[in-house]
Amino acid sequence: MSEYKNGLSAIKALYEEYITEVEQLERDKKPADGLLGFGKKISDDPCHDRFSERLRKMLEDYAAEKPDTSDVRAVLEYIYSIQTEHKDPVSAYWLMNAVHGFTVDLVKILSREDASALCEFYEKKCPRSERFPVQKKVIKALKSAAK
After folding, report:
1. Domain boundaries, given as residue ranges, for the chain
2. Phi first, then psi: what are they for 103, rounded to 5°?
3. What CA–CA distance (Å, rounded) separates 131 from 109?
4. Residue 87: helix, strand or coil by DSSP?
5. What pLDDT digit, counting tens, does each position of 41-93 carry?
6. Whole-prediction pTM
């Protein structure tokens, strides 16, 4: 993985930085922030857009590096599971689910075997009753790559 500048270690570092930043925002918020339009809502902080844009760019660059299927699978397993470990802060949890949509192009790099295994993994991490539209899109892409 170290041969890829946008591989798993870089992606983990980005997530850790983002989670730490949102946790700090949570610690610093005042009890009335965001109520009645006063103060600052954590969900409006620019860190969310910054994280999303950096991750999107990293994944595009990573795909362009033509990584092998096992490396892609490791990256995707991380991205598909990290939000289950960080349900708080809530604003980070929702975004970490939403960015799954950025992974659809990487799914195309997976071998059939890795796509099939990752699909099974993802369906367990995202039970049908809790899936968002973006997660349904990812499952569809994984199933297609597994054929």
Report:
1. 8-146
2. -90, -5
3. 24
4. coil
5. 777 789 999 999 999 999 999 999 999 999 999 999 999 999 888 877 788 99
6. 0.87
